[in-house]
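Quick one, T. Sequence first:
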Amino acid sequence: MKLIEVATPAHQKEFIEMAVALYKNEKNWIRPLDADIEGLFHPETNKLFRNGAKSKRWLLEDEKGQTIGRVAAFVNPKMKEKQPTGGLGFFECINDQSAAFLLFDTAKSWLQSEGMEAMDGPINFGERDKWWGLLADGFTEPNYNMPWNFPYYQKFFEDYGFQLYFKQYTYMRPVQDLGFDEKMIQRANAIMANPDYSFRYIKGKELQEKVPEYFMTVYNKAWARHMGKSIALKEAQLMFGKMKPIIDPRLIYFAFFKDEPAGFFIQIPEINQIFKHVNGKMDLFGKLKFLWYKTFSPPNKMLGLVFGVVPEHQGKGVESAMIISYDKMSGKASFPYKTIEMNWIGDFNPKMMRVCEQLLATIYKTHHTYRYLFDREKPFERHPIFD
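Structure tokens:
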């Protein structure tokens, strides 16, 4: 077997096409957009490089010169862990343990040379909401930016010595004809009876001009402490600007207390139901296909992106009231979405797991994030539980 460091445009293309060939007979695999993958490895499109991040990629060929595996390794200074921890990701391999272990060894050696003492994998070279984790259960079509892999990958990781750092659950529930936990309904009714609270869609001019500010306010209070970073208004504006082509105002919902934003959930149509038709290309032909399917065969599934309530309103029933008031409006027969899926509920976040359970949602998929400590004598610790 021969390792090749990705260093040329031809290598970059093969890094993409290798996965396409590997999954050509898998009906549930959806080809990611080529630009979404390749863009992660270039400073022009991944700002982590400007903050000192580094990455390497390799292809693995067999004796006949056929590509049988690939892997990437990266060092991200923003990853704050007890020990310097790098990342391994975008791993693909034929069902051959020796090939898989050679790819793992290669990533490990490079990370050690960069001063790392552990590696997490498979993870993204960027934010946790994309390409993070190994699919371990629920091998149906993936949601946008969520990884899909062969079941045999799990044995590769665990036999090599990776240990489970945390699980990420995808919960699913029908939009219509499913009730809620009775205690949840009681808490919601108590909050909705309080005139200081209001709950509504955000649409029109307010959606364009005010939602980024509302989002920033709630996110920085509710999530920044756990996620390790706050966001600026410009970042929020950029995020919603990028989402504009797929935003459905019926899926943007906020809670207010005395007209100040107190909570939200942001949902989008599950666009992999469209992207599966463009074969990874958003060139002119791909864009035309996207517009056609968006217009004439739109998604019937919505994807919960992020949910949050500011700390001073947590534990009072605001979460319940926001969800149940939304359900009263979205549960109409004319509402086009049939199911909702909520990605990326970490097993270290019991509060969010309880919210999903109160929604009577069920775990639909499970991804694993693994950690490998280079010092094999060092005690392993799982991800800390959010309080």
